[in-house]
Amino acid sequence: MVSVVRALWQDDYVHDGDIWKLPTSTGVPKPIQKPNPPMRFIARDPDSHNFSVANGCNVVVTPPMKDDEEVLDLKTKSQAALDNNPNAKPAIDGAASPHAHAANDPEDWKVSTKAISKFYRTFEA
Fold first, then answer.
1. Tens digit of pLDDT for each residue in 80-98?
2. By C-alpha distance, which of 57, 10, 7 is closest to 31?
3. pLDDT tens across 18-65, in order?
4. 64-96 burial by CB neighbour count: b if 16+ within 10 A, else e?
5. 8 Å CB contact between 74 and 43
6. 40 forms bridges with which residues in the sheet?
7. What confidence score (pLDDT) does residue 41 get?
8. Which residues make Cβ contacts (< 8 Å) with residue 81, sequence separation at least 6?
9. Contact 108, 78 (CB under 8 A)
10. Is 7 exposed, middle or buried (0-12, 13-18, 19+ CB in 10 A)?
11. What is the spatial distance between Cα 121 and Cα 116, in angstroms, rounded to a whole number?
């Protein structure tokens, strides 16, 4: 769908693929950045890293409930994808997005703690 989104950012678009079919459609509002804004993909396995980089997209890794070794492993996968796709031009070569929360009120930590707990119960357990 990367090519579909990019096409919609440019003009009206019709897609007649094997899986997705889209009648004449218009994406609005059109982005100001040309040729298009950077796209970012969360990547964990080598294939998702390669797909992201090969399509000129940025890689963001989120090491859920993992230590620094996981971050280094994901960095290695990102670097391998960059090495495998020397002609690709992602805007950045990677970013890590660990969960964090800052609060002004001493009681605000409860809100983020509940939200992060729900996230992990839903997607990790």
1. 998 999 888 776 655 666 6
2. 10
3. 998 999 999 999 999 988 898 888 888 899 999 998 998 888 877 666
4. eeeeeebeeebeebbeebbeebeeeebeeebee
5. yes
6. 58
7. 85
8. 43, 46, 49, 50, 52, 53, 54, 59
9. no
10. middle
11. 9
Distance, in Å, from the CA atom of 50 to the CA atom of 44, rounded to the nearest integer, reads 10
**Which residue bears the tokens 């990019």?**
6
Give DSSP secondary structure letters for 6-62: HHHHHS-EEEE-SS-EEEEE--SSPPSSSS----EEE--SHHHHHHHHHTT-EEEE-
Could you tell me how many helices (H) and strands (E) the chain has, helices first?
4, 5
| Backbone CA torsion sign across 38, 86, 59, 57 | positive
Backbone angles phi, psi at 33, to 5 degrees: -65, 135
13 strand-pairing partners: 25
The first and second tokens of residue 61, run together, are 């890794």
| Cα 96 from Cα 109, distance rounded (Å) | 22
61 vs 21, 22, 34, 76, 97, CA distance in Å? 31, 31, 25, 11, 6
